[in-house]
Amino acid sequence: MPSDLSENPAPARNFPIFDLSRFEQADAAGRRALGAEVDAICRSTGFLAISGHSVPRPVIDAVWRKAHAFFDLPAEVKEKARAPYPGYPYGYLGPGVEALAKSKGQDTPPDLKESFNGGPLSVPEGLDDAQALAFCYAATIWPEEPAGFRAAWEAYYRAMEDLAGRIMRVFAAALDLRETFFDKTIDRPVSALRALNYPQTHVAPQPGQLRAGAHTDYGSLTILLPQPGSSGLQIFTPEGDWREVPPLDGAFVINIGDLMARWTNDRWVSTLHRVVNSDGSAARRQSLAFFHQPNWHQEIACIPSCLAPGESPRYEPVFSGPYLMSKFQATVKPAA
Ligand SMILES: O=C(O)CCC(=O)C(=O)O
Ligand SMILES: [Fe+2]
């Protein structure tokens, strides 16, 4: 685990940008070639930007504004939408609740952030798994204000679910699989959307305390929208140093998560990343993170074509939903 918390690294040179519309309009040979580019990126860091995504600007702007207005509310108002007990996945998680580095076994002070979290927009018909109903399909605790929050949130959630499905087709092409390979594994996804607010800080953080501690994401892929022009998101490169993700106006930053690494037998890497606060006095920063997660019951076992001859799978198969639940619950402060 790297620990150079005070380092102020340079922006990532040549941060890759992938034009999704170009891929979708290409013929079979073009798609294979573009897929190969994505394969190379995912073997190296698994972090890239997506342009040509066609997510309407008003959908993005609306959720951004509503989240900003929500975080501006007094603490006691935000607390009304609080997750009812530690380990409950949705609703408002106030400052001091989560330490992402704990998912990596690092005992750090809590992250300097607050978040609002929401789950799937509906429960699939006939689903009766008690754990799934109690965790991924638990109710989102909606805030009463600002007006229009829920409508804006749901529109953005839908747009992200759709975008994630399109990116998973790129991933299938990148892995030399038929492009619909993942479709059935993500047709009842248990994805979560998280709005993050990192308040302005005036005092030095505690030793080891960051805005978001070093972690990997848990699922198939994450679609991030960092505040335009903001800094602080860093990835741990294959060369072994922290690199800042540059601001990329109009593009989403995506990264693959642990389940994609497991699926591909570590051909693709789920890269460690974090959000730092420079020198203890950092400006407020907001972001949106959509954590795309395969169906609750989906078994994630090594894709056979990701095994070289004579190689054996590095991981035991896991089920998507229970895996997510165990990772999430490791990061929250237990009840006092
Ligand atoms: O806020 C960001 O830019 C990244 C947050 C993040 O990595 C996470 O919440 O998993
Ligand atoms: Fe993350």
From TrEMBL:
- Cofactor(s), names only, from the UniProt record: Fe(2+)
> Cross-referenced PROSITE patterns, in alphabetical order?
FE2OG_OXY
Q: List the molecular function annotations (GO) for this entry.
A: 2-oxoglutarate oxygenase/decarboxylase (ethylene-forming) activity; metal ion binding
Task: Tell me where in this chain the Fe2OG dioxygenase domain is found.
Answer: 188-294
Q: Which GO terms describe its biological process?
A: ethylene biosynthetic process
Reaction catalysed by this enzyme: L-arginine + 2-oxoglutarate + O2 = guanidine + L-glutamate 5-semialdehyde + succinate + CO2; 2-oxoglutarate + O2 + 2 H(+) = ethene + 3 CO2 + H2O
This entry's Enzyme Commission designation comes to: 1.13.12.19, 1.14.20.7
Which EC main class describes this enzyme? oxidoreductase
Q: Which PANTHER family match?
A: 2-OXOGLUTARATE (2OG) AND FE(II)-DEPENDENT OXYGENASE SUPERFAMILY PROTEIN-RELATED
Q: Which family does it belong to?
A: Belongs to the iron/ascorbate-dependent oxidoreductase family.
Question: What is this protein called in UniProt?
Answer: 2-oxoglutarate-dependent ethylene/succinate-forming enzyme
Organism expressing this protein natively: Kumtagia ephedrae
